[in-house]
Amino acid sequence: LQPAVPTDLKPEQNQQVLSHLKNPSFVRTVRTEEVRSDDLSRLRPGMWLNDAIINTYGALLLDRAEVPGAPRSIHFFNSFFYQKLSEQGYDKGMLKRWTKRSKVDIFEKDVVLFPINLGNAHWTAAAINMKEKRIEYYDSMGDRGGARKAIFRNVREYLQKEHQDKKGSAFNLSGWEDVFNPVNNGSDCGVFSCQTLEAIARGRDLVNDGFDFGAKHMSMMRKLMVFEIAQGKLEKRW
User: Among this protein's residues, is 194 annotated catalytic?
Assistant: First the structure.
């Protein structure tokens, strides 16, 4: 049996979290992302997470994936990726530059992860699982706004155009499936999305094995994210 996910941090970690949240000059840079005190305060209970928090957490996922022995090779697209894809499309949104500039071949990765901001009101998460041939979509409030059909369609179009641009050939989507995984997790949608992407990045198969966390863990996970962002490194999971 796997150990249960804790519902709180250790006392000394909680003290550090409080100290970071009270520090008006807090700043942490991870790769090209930066979190300042105003951003960090978004991790206080009940607050809406902003792009700085979400994208810095993604940078931490990338850092962990580069450590020798990492369970999965991943790529993380920041929160502006899907916004451009959905609003402008692959060509107008210049999305081919995103992987050209960073010299990333997404088709060689196990999984490609990205957060989705729905109408500046709700965070969800998506994964392109290259190994399992799945486009996975996770929403903590069911299918808010009926978004999933458009998301699956847009991601499939992205895969086809990216493959044509980088490989010069059509991408074979036969055998690929769209998987929607709704979870009733209340209002902590940003935390839920980050922790969903974290779980996938460390190798958990959420489609077949489900989540190892739930609504009761959200308070702890907010503090955990403060702790991890402050130290610039993800903690070892349970």
Answer: no
Q: Cα(188)–Cα(230) distance, rounded to whole angstroms?
A: 20
Give SS3 for 79.
Answer: helix
189 catalytically annotated: yes
pLDDT (0 to 100) of residue 230:
99
Packed helices 51-65 and 189-201: angle between N→C axes, nearest 10 degrees: 10
The answer, as to whether pTM is greater than 0.90, is: yes
Chunk the chain into consecutive blocks of 10 residues (it has 238) and report each block's average pLDDT, rounded to whole numbers: 86 99 99 99 96 99 96 97 98 97 96 97 96 96 84 98 98 97 78 97 95 93 99 94
Instruction: Report which DSSP code applies to 126.
Output: E
Q: So what's the architecture of 11-231 in CATH?
A: 3-Layer(aba) Sandwich (3.40)
Distance CA 147, CA 123 (A): 12
Q: Where do the domains of the chain lie?
A: 11-231
Q: Please tell me which residue in 20, 75, 122, 217 is annotated as part of the active site.
A: 122
